[in-house]
Write a structure and sequence with these properties.
This protein has helices at residues 19-22, 27-40, 53-62, 82-91, 129-143, and strands at 2-7, 44-49, 69-73, 95-99, 121-124. The chain is of the alpha/beta class. Helix 3 runs parallel beside helix 4 (82-91). The structure holds 1,3,4-trihydroxy-5-OXO-cyclohexanecarboxylic acid. 1,3,4-trihydroxy-5-OXO-cyclohexanecarboxylic acid is lined by residues 10, 73, 75-76, 78, 99-101, 103, 110. The active site is at residues 22, 99. This is 3-dehydroquinate dehydratase. Its EC number is 4.2.1.10.
Length: 147
């Protein structure tokens, strides 16, 4: 099985960015951790981060027919991007939305997500652990027998 991990804007700054909110783990370390978890599950995981909305849309398009599921921390685009929503729905690839912080415990503008209502599930508020939980949830969803 092949899966794609997408990280949106400013997540390349993890480790130094608002550590009280996002923790001290770098994105490289989070990705390494997730790659190990994926390997243990016999899953091929590709990781992609961009600060550009269009680059994320392009990467989702490239994933069509290539991956069975997507893990996405869209960063601030979660709250603004109809384009990312359309790309995910257009690609028709099941996805899990994830966040390091609990977006519902923060500013009002972070409470709405353009992605959440069509996601397999949402994981928010567990720091770097959100990535692991999201992978576990997506795999459980993809591996369940077809209804
Ligand atoms: C975030 C939450 C978003 O509101 C914020 O814009 C981010 C990070 C998180 O992982 O907690 O960039 O997605």
């Amino acid at each position: 099985m092949r899966l794609l991990l997408l990280n949106g804007p400013n997540l390349n700054l993890l480790g130094q960015r608002e550590p009280g909110v996002y923790g001290v783990m770098t994105l490289k370390a989070i990705e390494a951790d997730l790659l190990a978890q994926a390997e243990a599950e016999a899953v091929q995981l590709e990781c992609f981060q961009s600060n550009f909305e269009g680059a994320l849309v392009d990467r989702i398009h490239q994933a069509i027919g290539q991956v069975q599921g997507i893990l996405i921390n869209a960063g601030a685009y979660t709250h603004t991007s109809i384009a990312l929503r359309d790309a995910l729905l257009g690609a028709a690839i099941p996805y899990v939305e994830l966040h390091l912080s609990n977006t519902h415990a923060r500013e009002g503008f972070r409470h709405h997500s353009y992605l959440a209502d069509r996601a397999v599930g949402v994981v928010s508020g567990f720091g770097a652990l959100s990535y692991r939980l999201a992978l576990e949830g997506l795999l459980a969803h993809l591996r369940q027998p077809q209804q």
